[in-house]
Design brief:
This protein is α+β, with helices and mostly antiparallel strands. The chain has a 3-stranded mixed beta sheet with strand order 2-1-3, with no helix packed on it. The radius of gyration is 29 Å and the shape is elongated. The N and C termini lie far apart (95 Å).
């Protein structure tokens, strides 16, 4: 049987981490029933919960940045069509 460590996180999720694969798994790549040989309690969120909170912060930060960029552009009177340099290279006509 393969030896596992049971890990409980502060968010309430539980993970079973392999400590050692048995010979049967190494030959067949089929998992055996877990044999829990150790248990850990961690005072931190698991990877899924930790990633979710950081993704939410990043998304809200990007939304705020794009909103402030749009407000600045509209207050300056700039739009994507008015900033094209099509007529800026033409020389003034004489005559």
């Amino acid at each position: 049987m393969c030896d596992y460590t049971k890990v409980e996180y502060s968010c309430g999720h539980v993970r079973y981490l392999v400590r050692a694969w048995c010979v049967r798994y190494q030959e067949t790549h089929r998992r055996c029933p877990p044999n829990v040989v150790a248990q850990e309690w961690l005072n931190e969120k698991c990877g899924d919960c930790r990633d979710t909170s950081s993704r939410l912060q990043t998304t809200s930060r990007r939304t705020a940045e794009s909103a402030s960029t749009q407000e600045t552009s509209s207050s300056n009177g700039l739009t994507s069509s008015s900033s094209s340099p099509a007529n800026s290279s033409a020389s003034p006509r004489q005559g």
